[in-house]
Amino acid sequence: MWRREANTVVRRVPPLPEQTTAPFAIVAGLRIPSVPTEWSPHAHPLHELVWVRGGTLTSRVRDRVFTVSTGHGLWMPAGTTHGGRVTAGARFYEAFFAPDRAPFAFEEPRAIAMTPLLESLLNHLSRTDLDAAARARAESVVYDVLQPSERQFALQLPGDARIDVIAEALLDDPADCRSLEEWARVLGISDRTVTRAFRQATGLSFAQWRQALRVHRALALLSEGLDVTTVSEVLGYAQPSTFIASFRKVVGTTPGAFSASAGSAPENVRNSVSPVRDS
Questions:
Q1: Which helix (H) or strand (E) holds 114?
Q2: What whole-number distance in Å separates Cα of residue 220 and Cα of residue 65?
């Protein structure tokens, strides 16, 4: 994935919540890492939905990198091997779904729209004092409102030995401005070969793929509080206006609007999931 921050803590897969051993179909919880935290590749026997507030989560699933920011979540099917990394101080939420009690499930990792209603329902289900009837009613509504996001925020990695070195270099340093022709000379192949390889592996041209990668990285940087000009410079754009145009094209909104939404609390969500149990 992206270059690991110097103070990142790498952890093994955390144990599942104790409630998953109880007859609950959905269990939700929250953790707030004080430092950048990475979880080694692992898989769960349950479906998992993760989302964040005040930061970003990056997850690597085979040949795709998902970037999860405020307002969105990531559904991970049971048994899917994945690794994850969350920024320091982010409110990291997770919910687990028992496969044998789910009326439906997404078979592939999917970005999920974390609406205020969905978050409120999952907060409600984080309680352990609900009677069976109340829990069953809330769980049924969760599946009614659980919907994929319009934008999936998934970066397809090439997985092609001819150009993987380009992908690795740009993941390590998105500001690397070497042109397609320069990369072709470095690799000792023609620029047409590089172009075809990117198209075949990712469905994008080299320039489009690098643009998408930079915007994915921008999501994390903006969520960490960096201003638009600084993010533009870090990602190698000559002008902030060029960065803003690229960001809008991929995300559908401006970096400034994204930062404003990432820094605000979800509206109309009562008693949002917190480390302190509701009285």
A1: none
A2: 13
Which of 49, 24, 269, 28 shows the shortest CA–CA distance to 134? 24
Residues 6+ apart with CB under 8 A from 253: 247
β partners of residue 29: 94
Q: Which two tokens stand for residue 218?
A: 């921008």
What is the C-alpha to C-alpha distance for residues 129 and 135, in angstroms, rounded to an integer?
9
User: Encoding tokens for residue 87?
Assistant: 């920024």
CA atoms of 114 and 267, how far apart (whole Å): 11
Structure tokens at 2: 């992206």
In whole angstroms, what is the distance from residue 37 CA to residue 166 CA? 26
Phi and psi at 231, nearest 5°, equal -60, -40
Q: What is the pTM of this model?
A: 0.83
pLDDT tens sequence across 149-193: 888 789 999 999 999 999 999 999 999 999 999 999 999 999 999
CB 112 within 8 A of CB 72: yes
Query: Distance between CA 16 and CA 136 in Å, rounded?
Result: 21
Q: What is the CA angle 152-76-86, rounded to 5? A: 75
Residue 234, φ and ψ in degrees, nearest 5: -60, -35
d(CA 85, CA 5): 10
